[in-house]
Write a structure and sequence with these properties.
By secondary structure, the protein is of the alpha+beta class. It has five domains: 61 residues; 146 residues, no CATH class; 123 residues, no CATH class; 127 residues, SH3 type barrels, CATH 2.30.30; 82 residues, 2-Layer Sandwich (Alpha-Beta Plaits), CATH 3.30.70.100. The protein has 21 helices and 13 strands. A five-stranded antiparallel beta sheet has the order 9-8-7-6-10. It has a three-stranded antiparallel beta sheet with strand order 1-2-3. It has a three-stranded antiparallel beta sheet with strand order 11-13-12, with helices on one face. A hairpin with a 6-residue loop joins strand 1 and strand 2. The protein is elongated and about 145 Å long. The termini are far apart. Keywords: Cell membrane, Membrane, Transmembrane, Transmembrane helix.
């Protein structure tokens, strides 16, 4: 604006007859000198403004954070070609990192929205190389014939195609006021096929002496230098699916070395942790040993992605993409494995710090919570993986929902057991160590409450596994609740005519001598009924723990029989007197 204002400065006004006004005519020479100085000053300012503007634009272009100029088809094409020519020259000069950075900058002229997010970076780099190779072999109109920003606004253009080709530059709308013209998605996806069609054509004069793709192919890789590649036999340089045989051999060797390294770390690391546990009693093998394998798989996949790009220089996108997909799947699978293992160990820490009995209901509640968290995290990671691989997120979520419904229908028995587990955890009808009796007569100590079943151990040392859905819906007696002590009953009959006071005294003395019977609550004897053959009495006493019920009843019954025999107390057996009446 300042330069424009200086241009608008006028010379002294003249009369209509082109004569000088009187006040200027009196001393014209000094004013002529001043006018010359004024014009010189204007030209100097214009000159400085011009170079200041160009210098600022150059500084912006050179700034690493400045976006490429993609305001019109002309600007996009020029930016792309100029940047790739600079990348080629930088690579020839030995500045490989600078060349790669320039190629990545040129890739910002490509529309990669339809490519998988996880592969956009590498995909953009490869397609940039193929597109530059193609453009260097075809005739491109002069820049003044390509629409610029003014022509785009005037004609309201949304795309422009290089004549006689399918290579197009289209407007990308992202909801912002800035218009961006990028090489279209179809152009990007077909860049390699375009290159295959024109690769036998010579370079055009404006190509700058060859593109970067051939430079990369001719210089070997970071692992195998150019000098070694040139000494390889012909069969090793023969292409298979667009890549040299030595590259495929290198990939196979990498998988072999990686598998051996992973096995060595897993076995050797486990053995080393075991030795440390034996010497220092740290107990780290169980907690840390299970994390070695998923961590090494994650490292293997990430190093593999780097290796096929920079180590072996796989430049064929049709070959690189499937291999990259495999590495990504291994990486995400190992991450899911690692997250599950870490959450299990965190749950164990919670159980240990909280003093929770291992295998009990509280333990299962903590573990079930962390397992549910694991399922949620795995679901989120699967959706994220699908999005990074280019799968529609909403379709993936819908598919997971339908798949979950199918799994639920197919495994309804297992699902009912899981629901039964949740009901047991919330209702808490028993805890670990309780003695329970189920409706079908199973009786034993609760040893573990699992996600699918509950295990009880009988007095015969038999382990019974009962589905949680059965326990949740069955009648159950907990002999250890609400207090650990359990009451037993021992019934006995004495003959009619016996001294009941003496019977009670002798019986209570026998009970009090048994160390397994609790003194509080005190044992008591109750008279129940007049039986057909005896007076029926019942002993009520408390024991702890409940599993001693059988042993204590045996001891009491044995002692009662022996003491009653000594005291002359008769225990009658069932009998019936028959009186025969005869007529005289």
């Amino acid at each position: 604006m300042e330069c424009k204002k200086l241009l608008e400065l006028r010379t002294p006004l003249r009369m209509a007859n082109n004569t000088t006004p009187l006040r200027y005519a009196r001393n014209a020479a000094p004013y002529r000198i001043m006018g010359s100085l004024r014009y010189g000053l204007q030209l100097t300012v214009l000159f400085l403004c011009f170079f200041w503007t160009n210098g600022a634009e150059a500084a912006v272009d050179l700034h690493p954070l400045a976006p490429p100029n993609v305001s019109s088809p002309r600007a996009t094409l020029k930016t792309f070609l100029d940047t790739m020519n600079d990348a080629t020259q930088a690579y020839k000069a030995g500045h490989e990192h600078k060349a790669v950075a320039l190629a990545e900058r040129a890739a910002r002229c490509l529309n990669l929205e339809k490519e998988p997010p996880a592969l956009r970076h590498v995909m953009g780099f490869y397609m940039t190389l193929y597109l530059k190779e193609t453009l260097d072999r075809i005739e491109i109109p002069p820049y003044d014939e390509i629409p610029d920003a003014k022509a785009v606004r005037t004609e309201k253009m949304t795309s422009w195609t290089i004549p006689y080709t399918e290579i197009s530059i289209a407007l990308v709308s992202e909801g912002s006021s800035t218009e961006r013209f990028l090489f279209s998605s179809d152009t990007v996806r077909n860049a390699e096929s375009y290159y295959e069609k024109v690769k036998d054509l010579p370079y055009t004069p404006q190509s700058g002496g060859g593109a970067l793709l051939d430079q990369l192919k001719d210089t070997g890789s970071l692992i195998v230098p150019k000098s070694l590649v040139e000494r390889l036999p012909n069969w090793a340089r023969t292409e298979i699916f667009g890549e040299a045989t030595w590259q495929w051999i290198g990939l196979i060797i990498y998988f072999g070395i990686a598998a051996g390294t992973i096995l060595l770390l897993y076995k050797g690391g486990g053995g080393l942790l075991g030795m440390l546990d034996e010497k220092f009693q740290w107990g780290v093998k169980h907690s840390v040993g299970g994390l070695i394998l998923p961590v090494t798989l994650i490292l293997f996949s990430h190093v593999g992605l780097w290796f096929i790009i920079y180590g072996l220089r796989f430049l064929n996108a049709d070959v690189y993409m499937p291999i990259a997909f495999v590495f990504l799947l291994i990486s995400y699978g190992a991450r899911i494995w690692l997250i599950g293992a870490v959450l299990n160990r965190i749950a164990a820490i919670f159980v240990f710090v909280g003093g929770i009995v291992r295998g009990g209901v509280d333990d299962q509640l903590v573990r079930l919570g962390f397992q549910a968290l694991s399922v949620i995290i795995v679901g989120v990671m699967m959706v994220n993986l699908g999005a990074r691989l280019g799968l529609p997120t909403y379709s993936l979520i819908t598919g997971l929902g339908i798949g979950g419904l199918a799994v639920a229908l197919a495994g309804r028995e297992a699902l009912s057991n899981v629901i039964g587990t949740v009901m047991i955890i919330l209702d808490r009808p028993f805890k670990l160590g309780d003695y329970i009796v189920l409706g079908e007569g199973e009786r034993g100590e609760v040893t573990e409450v699992g996600l699918r079943s509950t295990r009880i151990r009988t007095r015969d040392d038999i382990l019974i596994s009962i589905p949680n859905s059965v326990i949740a819906n069955a009648k159950m007696i907990n002999e250890s609740a609400p207090v650990p002590a359990s009451r037993i009953r021992v019934k006995i009959g004495v003959a009619y005519g016996s001294d009941l006071a003496k019977v009670e005294e002798v019986w209570l003395k026998i009970v009090q001598q048994n160390e397994l019977v609790l003194s509080h609550p005190a044992p008591r004897i109750r008279f129940r009924r007049f039986g057909d053959s005896a007076l029926d009495l019942e002993l009520l006493c408390w024991i702890d723990p409940p599993e001693l019920r059988g042993r204590i009843i045996h001891q009491l019954s044995w002692a009662i029989h022996e003491e009653f025999r000594k005291q002359g107390i008769e225990i009658p057996f069932p009998q019936r007197d028959i009186h025969i009446r005869t007529d005289r």
